[in-house]
Design a protein that fits this description.
- 60% of the residues lie in helices and 15% in strands.
- The chain is an alpha+beta fold.
- Strands 2-1-4-3 form a four-stranded antiparallel β-sheet. A four-stranded antiparallel β-sheet has the order 6-7-5-10, with helices on both faces.
- Helix 1 (13-62) packs antiparallel against helix 5 (148-201), helix 4 crosses helix 5 and helix 9 packs across helix 10 (298-316).
Length: 406
């Protein structure tokens, strides 16, 4: 079964990289410490062996006279003199008959160290032996054993120096590694932040900053080039979407918002209680537009519709948005009106705007009267009732107005 990671339990790259670097340094330095320790012990053993051999050779020359004259006391004094200098732990002289001639043993003041004794016996399982010669004749031999505490002291000192050096080296290695890793993590974090911002916030203007590491720098440049292409693609897509939205929500002839935008605006108005309490709806319908179309043609009719839309926009501005519902049917939503008389004054002013003749751009001009009906938003509970009341009022006005063509 695969382990599932939650965002809280998922390790970060920085933490993982740091753990890997620490573990790598610890394992590497431990292996190096073991190898150097073994090498140090072997080297120490060889050095101590040579030192004991040199000491035994010196003793053999010093004991030559004592063996020739059979002076055991002098031999013992010679052994004691060198032994007290810490050269060996035990020394024994054997005569030519293989009988003990003299012997000296170091007697420590404190109890012997078991570890030192073990190390000494491990390094030197048998005493170092050197013959004693006189005029080319073998007259005896010297046997000496290394001192335990001296060997232990060298080993402990070697381990201490070696361990200190390894720890210092490990600290330096970790510091350098962390510095290098911080550079890698910073570069990846920079790229990750940009990617996350682009994916989450769709901010295609973000770019990866320059990096000191060559590979990340090249990667950042390639990624920035990709972002350039994505940003250009997004801008084109946004422009296309805006164009499609405008086409879907606006009348292509007059540029006014169309019926779909009108329904959305009414729905938002009726769902907004503060706005609804001071808003009204106007319906406008041409009284003699069909006659203009039939008399002067559709091009002339289009000129009239465009001029109607222009006069409505000039009158209402952004405060009172205008809409074309189709044909010669228009609508306007009034905001900031608080009484029926306010709405009637606006209707009167709007009707007055259409008294001026319309230029057909063919040397002719015509007049177009508009029937304006209104409904107060705060008197209606739904969009349908608001539309029904405005439409009914508009047709009542139209039926009262005579049809005139000029």
């Amino acid at each position: 079964m695969n382990k599932e990671f939650t965002p809280a339990s998922r390790p970060t790259f920085k933490r993982t990289l740091r753990r890997i670097s620490v573990i790598s340094v610890v394992i590497t330095m431990t292996i190096i410490w073991l190898l150097l320790s073994v090498a140090s012990v072997v080297t120490l053993k060889q050095y101590a062996q040579k030192n004991l051999e040199l000491t035994s050779a010196t003793l053999s020359r010093s004991l030559e006279a004592a063996l020739v004259f059979n002076d055991a006391v002098a031999a013992t004094e010679t052994l004691a003199t060198l032994g007290k200098q810490g050269q060996f732990d035990m020394a024994e002289v054997i005569d030519r008959n293989h009988q003990p001639f003299a012997r000296w043993t170091w007697k420590p003041k404190n109890n012997p160290d078991t570890f030192n004794t073990f190390i000494s016996h491990w390094l030197f399982p048998v005493p170092v032996t050197h013959p004693v010669w006189h005029n080319g004749t073998l007259i005896g031999e010297v046997r000496i054993t290394a001192r335990d505490n001296l060997i232990g002291h060298f080993i402990w000192l070697s381990f201490a120096v070696l361990t200190g050096s390894i720890l210092l080296t490990s600290l330096v290695a970790l510091t350098i590694t962390r510095s290098l890793h911080n550079g890698v993590v910073a570069a990846l974090q920079n790229i990750t932040d940009v990617v996350h911002d682009v994916r989450t916030n769709r901010d295609f203007t973000r770019r990866v900053s320059e990096e000191r590491i060559e590979e990340f720098h090249r990667f950042g440049q390639d990624f920035n080039s990709l972002l350039d292409e994505m940003e250009e693609w997004q801008l084109k897509l946004q422009a296309k979407n805006a164009q499609l939205l405008r086409t879907a929500m606006h009348d292509p002839l007059t540029g006014l918002a169309n019926r779909a935008a009108f329904r959305n605006a009414l729905a938002s108005l009726m769902n907004d209680s503060p706005a609804k309490s001071s808003a009204a709806l106007l319906f406008l319908d041409g009284d003699n537009f069909k006659a203009i179309n039939d008399t002067w043609g559709h091009a002339a009719g289009d000129c009239v519709l465009i001029e109607v839309a222009s006069r409505m926009v000039e009158f209402g501005g952004k405060r009172h948005p205008s809409f074309r519902l189709g044909g010669d049917e228009f609508a306007m939503i009034l905001y900031g009106v608080h009484s029926r008389s306010d709405v009637q004054k606006i209707c009167s002013g709007l009707t007055h705007r259409f008294l001026q003749p319309f230029n057909l751009h063919n040397g002719e001009s015509v007049t177009l009267t508009l029937s304006v009906g209104f409904a107060l938003a705060w008197e209606n509970e739904s969009v349908e009732k608001l539309l029904e009341q405005a439409d009914r009022h508009m047709y009542r006005i139209k039926n009262q107005r005579p049809k005139v063509i000029s």
